[in-house]
Amino acid sequence: MQDSKAIATAQQLGPDYADLDAAAAVDLVAANHILAHNGVLDSFGHVSIRDPRNPNQYLQMQAIAPRDASVHDLITFNLDSNAINARGRPIYRERFIHGQIYRMRPDVNAVVHSHSPRHSVQRDRKAAASDLPQRPLPWPRHAGLGNPR
Predict the structure, then answer these.
(1) Can you give the residue range of the structural domain that contains 133?
(2) 99 and 27 both lie in a single domain
(3) Is the Cα dihedral 127, 40, 111, 1 positive or negative?
(4) Annotated catalytic residue: which of 65, 72, 94, 100?
(5) Among candidate residues 84, 96, 111, the one with its CA nearest the CA of residue 28
(6) Is 104 noted as a catalytic residue in this protein?
(7) For residues 49 and 101, what is the distance between their CA atoms, to the nearest angstrom?
(8) Cα–Cα–Cα angle for 34, 35, 39, rounded to 5 degrees
(9) CA nearest neighbour of 16 among 101, 106, 85
(10) Looking at the structure, do residues 22 and 72 belong to the same domain, yes or no?
(11) Could you tell me if 82 and 148 lie in one domain?
(12) What is the mean pLDDT of each run of 10 residues along the chain (149 residues)?
């Protein structure tokens, strides 16, 4: 049996999400709020989840401060990061990071992209020049996806 919050959320989702488990939308909103509250996401960071209805799509909020996200901000994207139902709402310019991660990693079900200086991993120039093995980073700031060096 669904709880009252999930039922209320399902009623707010609208026809594009009639078949979406309301808990997924609630979890994505909660992730935005929690990550913003803890300083992981600022006004430029964003989080997405793989669409549980279709693994070739992902769900992300419209371009809005994560602390202000609600289920009304939900937008579906394909793996090329084309919005399926934005209807004129602003979308994140860096959404392509999410689409490419989901395309390359079918085992990944959520992506967070942050510019928060406290949480961005940076490659150390000295370590990068050494013989230490390098590994792909989880797409921090200006790092890209790739194979370990």
Answers:
(1) 123-149
(2) yes
(3) positive
(4) 94
(5) 111
(6) no
(7) 11
(8) 115
(9) 85
(10) yes
(11) no
(12) 55 80 91 91 89 96 94 95 96 94 95 72 45 46 39
Residues 114 and 129 in one domain: no
Using DSSP's 3-state secondary structure scheme, residue 1 falls into: coil
pTM of the model: 0.74
Each residue of 14-44: pLDDT tens digit? 788 888 888 899 999 999 999 999 888 887 7
Strand order in the sheet with 46-50: 74-78, 57-61, 46-50, 110-113
| 25 close to 38: Cβ distance less than 8 angstroms | no
Does 48 share its domain with 87?
Answer: yes
Do 34 and 49 lie in a common domain? yes
Count of domains for the chain: 2
Query: Residue 117 corresponds to which amino acid?
Result: P
Instruction: Take residue 125 and report the two structure tokens written for it.
Output: 């120039």
- Between CA 146 and CA 23 the distance in angstroms is 33
